[in-house]
Amino acid sequence: MGRFEAKTDEHAGHVRVTLAGDCDLAVRDQLHTVLADALGSSPVVVVDLGAVEFLDSSGVHALIVAHHAARARGGRVTVVNATGAVASVLDITGVAELLGPQDVPAPPEQARADG
């Protein structure tokens, strides 16, 4: 079994969930809980997949469930920084287009560097 980590940071106007490791059946319930908790804090959730090494249908399902929950509340879930096989899975399933960036707030350290 691979490792899985989730870090949630609240920012003005959104919550950023940074995931790392494997998002698969073994962590399905934990992933659903992390995303639901984030949506409980803000209707806008940015999910950073930059450190995710593996994403299976359980991970995709969690993102779609979160998407529907956010939409029901007038919010949005956006995925960013997917690379390699994870980006391919999102592209093939259509999730990349569905949850792709649309005016996504930058992390605070990047916003300061750009400004």
TrEMBL record:
Record PROSITE patterns: STAS (PS50801)
Residues in STAS domain copies: 4-115
Signal peptide coordinates: none
CDD domains found in the cross-reference section: STAS_anti-anti-sigma_factors (cd07043)
Coiled coil: none
Domain of life: Bacteria
Pfam families: STAS_2
Family affiliation: Belongs to the anti-sigma-factor antagonist family.
Protein name listed in UniProt: Anti-sigma factor antagonist
